[in-house]
Every structure is written in structure tokens, then in C-alpha cells.
Design brief:
mainly alpha, globular, 15 helices, single chain
Length: 335
Amino acid sequence: MTTDRGEIRTNSLPDEEHNLFQRFIFSTPMLYVFAIGVWGSTWYIITLQLGVVAEEVSIGYRFCIASVALFLWGAFRGKDFSFPWEDHRIFMFKGVALYSVGYFFAYYAGGVIPSGLNAVLFSTIVIFNIFNAAIFFKQKISFLTLLGALLGLGGLALIFLPELQSLDIQNRSVLTGMGFAVLGGLVGSFGNIASMKSQNRGVRIIEANAFSMGYGGLLSLAIALMAGESLTFDLSFSYVGSLLYLAIFGSIVTFGCYLKVLGRLGADKAAYPMVLIPVVALFISVVFEGYQWSAYAIWGIVLMILGNIIITVKGKAEFLHYLKKILRKESSVKP
């Protein structure tokens, strides 16, 4: 449009709308929801990988593919992949903890204990994150954050209570599996701490994950070879499709979203999606595997939602005010 002075005035509304949309998509709540949703689906997708290819090899393939994809995307976008040795040490540690050994422990646990118990014990990563953030970053342990995390874990335990009640805790292999699951949570927490350190040094997530996933994937393949496994590949549609889904959406996109939230909120609050992921997995199980809800599961979800509210609201006063509003609404609807 031309003004009276002969100046050309452009309409900036499309750019403003684009910026608003971009801010919405990359806002913390949206990153939070996307990470929970996609990771919840991976519980079912992983079952499509079991059979022909060893689990360690599949983990290696998954993160090597993710690493190559990130390097290609970074090169296309003109990213700088030159980093000093100190950064590579953090990349290696993060890759070992988050994209290799932590997964091994979770997979090994899944071989001897029920998936529900594995989910509950691996979700102790939330508790480990709270204490590791206090140890390594001097973050104060918030009573509300700890309470919310414990409520979430309690809710998760309620959901899988029927499965847990049938457990033979006298069985040594079961106890070993439980130990592996907790170790998986601990090692994964160390990976989260390494990611926070990397972000604090100014390293962007895409570049860091490109190296870390590559280190983790190569280590997984090396461990598989040392264990006597062969690098076989299954050309079936279900295996290739699930592998690509796990590499692109279950690794690149979700870890990118989650680690971004980690940098913004800290290790204690950001790890709470780990507790909510099994709930999404149950909804998917209803569709594909015929899972039926129980009263325990419903009450468990109520506890987890309450835990999420406690962790995400800012401060005790705000939480108490929020709770009073709920109680007032409850009393107002009573006859």
C-alpha cells in the first residue's frame, strides 16, 4: 500500500501471526504435551521391534539413525558442529547415560518383571532428578516438587497395582529386574544432568543431541558385538516402520522437546512427564491391546494429575489458593 508521501507500507500481520504461532508451538506446555504423547506411544511401538533383531542392536540402530538425521539437518541449516574437547566429554557422558546404558537397564528389567512394575521403578528418575539437581546445581529441594513427584509415583503404582500384587518378590530374578529398573532411572537422571550442563555452556540441543545420540548408538552396537550378537536387520514393514518412528519422533523430536523443557524448568520439574508417559501408553493399549480400566487405575490418574498441578504451579501460596478455589466450587454444587 502507498501512503500520501509516496512511501510503501507493508502489512506485517502475517509475520506477527507466524511469530505468535511459533511461540505457541514452542511454548513449554506444548513441548511438555508433545513429549508425553509421543513417548507414551513408543511403549507400544517398541513391541513391534522384538523378535528377529537383538534389543541392544535395535537401540544402536535407533540412535545412530537419529544422529545421522540430526547431522544432515544441521548441515542443511548451516549449523556449526565444531566443539572443544570439554563439550565432547559431556556429549559422551550424556550419550552413554541417556541413549545407551539407561535403555539397556530398562530393556533388561522388562525381560524379567512386568511392564507396569518396570514403569513405576524407572519413573524414580523424577526423584533422582530432584536430588541430583540439588547436588550438581545447588538447586533447593522444594517440598511441593517432592510431594508432587511422590504423588505421581503413588498414582502410577495404583494404576499397576493388580500387576504388582501378583509379583513374587522372593524370586531372585525379579529382584534383579527391579534393581535394573531403578538403575535405569538413576543413569537416565545423570544423562539429564549432563544435558543441563551442556545447555548452561551455551550448546544448542540439536548439535548436542547429534553427537550424544551418535556416541550412545555406537556404544550400544559395540556392546552388542562384545556380547556375541550379530548386526542383523529385519526388512519387514513393521520393524523398519517402527525403527524410523522411534528414531525420528521417539528420539529426535521428543528428546529435543523434553531437553528444551529441562533447560527451562530444571531437572526436577521437567522429569515429571516420565511419570505421565505410562498413562498415555495405557490409553493406546485400550485401542490396540484391549486394556480395561479398573477403579485403581482411575484413582491413580487422579493422584498423578494432582501431583502434576502441585509441581507446575509456582509457589505454595498459589497452590493453596488454587486448592481453595476447587473446594469452593465443590461446596457450591452440593445440594
